[in-house]
Amino acid sequence: MNDNIPVDGQYWWSNVRQAVRFYDAIAAIIKDEAANVFLEISPHPVLATSIRECC
């Protein structure tokens, strides 16, 4: 999340209707935040495989 981007109805509508650059987002988090652990809270691990492929 970015403090400069309002997380409002328009934000979520855009995320549902437009392409989301998932790989770019994960790569930026790894680079900028030095993150090496991602926690997916979900009944099914739907993002885990995609995150592993990005790393």
TrEMBL record:
<dbReference type="InterPro" id="IPR050444">
    <property type="entry name" value="Polyketide_Synthase"/>
</dbReference>
<keyword id="KW-0808">Transferase</keyword>
<dbReference type="InterPro" id="IPR001227">
    <property type="entry name" value="Ac_transferase_dom_sf"/>
</dbReference>
<dbReference type="InterPro" id="IPR016035">
    <property type="entry name" value="Acyl_Trfase/lysoPLipase"/>
</dbReference>
<dbReference type="Pfam" id="PF00698">
    <property type="entry name" value="Acyl_transf_1"/>
</dbReference>
<dbReference type="GO" id="GO:0016740">
    <property type="term" value="F:transferase activity"/>
</dbReference>
<dbReference type="InterPro" id="IPR014043">
    <property type="entry name" value="Acyl_transferase_dom"/>
</dbReference>
<feature type="domain" description="Malonyl-CoA:ACP transacylase (MAT)">
    <location>
        <begin position="7"/>
        <end position="53"/>
    </location>
</feature>
<protein>
    <recommendedName>
        <fullName>Malonyl-CoA:ACP transacylase (MAT) domain-containing protein</fullName>
    </recommendedName>
</protein>
